[in-house]
Amino acid sequence: MSALLLPPQPIESLTIPPELDGNAGRNRARSGIAQIAAGNDLDAVRAWLARFVDTKTTFDNYRKEAERLLLWSVLQMGKPLSSLTHEDLILYQHFLADPQPAMRWCSSSGRKHPRNDTRWRPFYGALSTSSQRQAMVILNVMFAWLVQAGYLAGNPLSLARQRARHAKPRITRYLSPELWLEVKTWIQAMPKETDREREHYARVRWLFTLLYLGGLRITEVGENTMGRFFRRRDANGEDRWWLEVLGKGGKERLVPATAEMMAELGAYRRERGLPALPSPDEDTPLVLPIGQSFKPLTRAALHRIVKEVFSGAADVLRARGETHAPRADRLAQASAHWLRHSAGSHMADQQVDLRLVRDNLGHASLTTTSQYLHADDDRRHRETEEKHRIDW
Fold first, then answer.
1. pLDDT band at 187, cuts 50/70/90?
2. What number is the average pLDDT over the span 3-23?
3. Fewer Cβ close by (within 10 Å): the C or N end of the chain?
4. Cis omega before residue 101 (within 30°)?
């Protein structure tokens, strides 16, 4: 069967005919020493993706874009990915705006099917302008790496017109202090009649404390443990608690574990029958399932808990009348990452030094071996504790 007639398949199960696999692609590097062992386009793309397997969100996004282009090149254009020209990539961007024939390229009714399902398709519909731009940015990164690796002779996207850099817009996906108060009020009103209700309330309260006071990403909540809390004596001889977070891209940062955070941690641990303070190297997840299990919750499970809270608080707002509908709609859109943005915004509003906010949120690496930076850490802890509070 001709490749042009084959249905799209996920990259992990994709088989490409020899004449289209890129072994003799027109853009293949013919001189120099290749830095990867790939002999065809599929293996080269897999080698690039292998760099991101430890960061699930990045890997999923990069795989999606590389997979779409590879399938389009082989199935729609009938040419290897390593033979694509600059003009081909312009056609591909137009294709992203309207993947046709839709029956072949798009999931029915825009539904997401598992990758091993025969109904799986690489698209759910047309991509927005911003999504098209993001796709081309990712592909540019891929092509540049394949050139650097000695697999391709040149990057067909490097000829694209460079857009003028614009100042990034201000963060808009955050909760105002008034909306944040609505969320806290809803949490504190949660039922606590049964053991299960009390445990659920304690877990929700602790999760929101971590996300807001710590500014943690939801993946960081799922992947770190309570043994990462530790105590360190500051320059004034006072013990201060910290949370060492392994975050995005494998980078570590220190998050001030304020007295408020440690009180919430103790309350949550006691609810679960644990000592108030964690022990060094304790492997207990930061947030636990309801019941006896001590397995870490998945990112999806944590996300679901947060969305249920936002949805519940939004329903309460709507019940007050039409004038509250816009605020309720905004709250219903919120996600766990909004709490991270809210933490940064509220700290800035309270005039916490922006350099300290940057370090709290992990926007720059920390060095703890220098005495000067160690003293700066102490100031960051002190200002965070004084000015960034949850006030249950």
1. very high
2. 82
3. N
4. yes
Asked if 337 and 217 touch (Cβ cutoff 8 Å), the reply is yes
The span from the CA of 346 to the CA of 200, in Å, is: 27
**What average pLDDT does this structure show over 215-234?**
92
Residue 71, H or E segment:
helix 56-71
385: helix, strand or coil? helix
Fill in the DSSP letter of residue 226: G
Q: What superfamily would CATH give domain 177-387?
A: Intergrase catalytic core (1.10.443.10)
| Separation of alpha carbons 244 and 49, rounded Å | 28
Maximum alpha-carbon separation in the chain:
76
First-to-final CA distance of the chain:
65
Question: Position 161: which residue type?
Answer: R
Read off the tokens for 35: 């830095």
Q: CA of 334: how far to CAs of 115, 162, 202, 315, 354, in Å?
A: 28, 33, 21, 13, 24
> What whole-number distance in Å separates Cα of residue 179 and Cα of residue 173?
12
Integer Cα distance of 301 and 243 in angstroms? 22
Q: Where along the chain do the CATH 1.10.443.10 domains lie?
A: 177-387
Q: Which helix (H) or strand (E) holds 353?
A: none
